[in-house]
Amino acid sequence: MTDTAIAPATVFEPLVADFYGFANELTDVEKEALAKLRAHLEAEVKPLVTEHWEKATFPREIIPGLHELGVASFAWEETKPFPNSAVFRGFAALELARVDASVATYVGVQNGLAAGAVSLCGSAEQRAHWLPKLASGEIVGSFGLTEPLSGSDSAQGLRTTARHEDGPDGGHWVLNGAKRWIGNATFGDVTVIWAKDEADKQVKGFLVPNDTPGFVATKIENKTALRIVQNADITLTDVVVPHANKLVNANSFRDTAKVLRQTRAEVAWEAVGVAIGAYEAALGYAKERVQFGKPIASHQLVQDLLVKSLGNITASLALVVQVSKMLDAGTQRDEHSALAKAFTTSKMRETVAWCREALGGNGIVLDHDAARFFADAEAIYSYEGTREMNTLIVGRAITGEAAFV
């Protein structure tokens, strides 16, 4: 990637969908970085997404540019290129998602889940070894939690097992089981595998190189959403992992939840980005499409769709900005990120439907982008905790009563 491939940016322009100016929360340095990211995405990534979405392939040529911009190292002290806030990281996720939800998902898995697990649960030595490689793109990471028979009940229902065997240097672990919906795993280098220790029945985390004997990743086909993401079914058959690859501070599902708490808030930002991408597509189309002798943007019913969409986006932006401020302040709890994820994805789902509707028949073809956002929204709505599960997390917090079963 040459320096000229990343367009210089000196002026930050607020998005048309940022109706109340939430980006003013950013510092000048953060605005400049965000403008540079946006220019790069528009020039180098956006022209590729429609073809790859239709083919269900991932444009691996975009990886070096994304890492050169630092988008896979925003959160972690060992690798971040400059001081930045959680609000900035949220806006970066938004910018990625408003171009393509799959590209945002790649970064979210690489940075939020894989690097996040190492940063929050690894030892100093593990962080020093793995984080620079993940940040630079030298290696691609994945996060193996969900299983074929365990999704929402991962806290108790995890079936993948880990058995410790003694030996020199702490011995090794033997993993057996299966994982499903694991992004990046078909072409990645290392996967954080969460497995239940046979000895104490606690969930623990392991860094498993994807070329380890017994580790098999198979691409999930026939998806109707996030087609660019290369999700995998993983089978683990007597996979031997050295003790040095066990995440030192990943010893129960509470430690897994530390990672999910942070990434769930960024998925809420991605949902806002998807809604904005659909809104921008609908607004642009409405200004150009002529019916009855005038642009459809001048029709009352079209304006109604656009204004309702903008209202959803604005309310969602207010929520995610505040929840990110709470993360910076150290006051964000599980229920805060859960409410953000549940609310923004619900409003995103509503918004992309209205925006698709504004395009009429052209709303179901990829040519105008709205159809892609409409389809991808379904996956964002479900992953990183369904709306129902996040609702129950919030419900427990406000009532003091757990209603999960």
Automatic annotation (TrEMBL):
Residue span(s) of domain Acyl-CoA dehydrogenase/oxidase N-terminal: 28-138
Domain Acyl-CoA oxidase/dehydrogenase middle: 142-239
Assigned keywords, A-Z: FAD, Flavoprotein, Oxidoreductase
Ranges in a coiled coil: none
Domain Acyl-CoA dehydrogenase/oxidase C-terminal residue range list: 256-398
Region (Disordered): 151-170
Cofactor: FAD
PANTHER family, alphabetized: ACYL-COA DEHYDROGENASE, ACYL-COENZYME A OXIDASE
Protein family membership: Belongs to the acyl-CoA dehydrogenase family.
Name under which the protein is recorded: Acyl-CoA dehydrogenase family protein
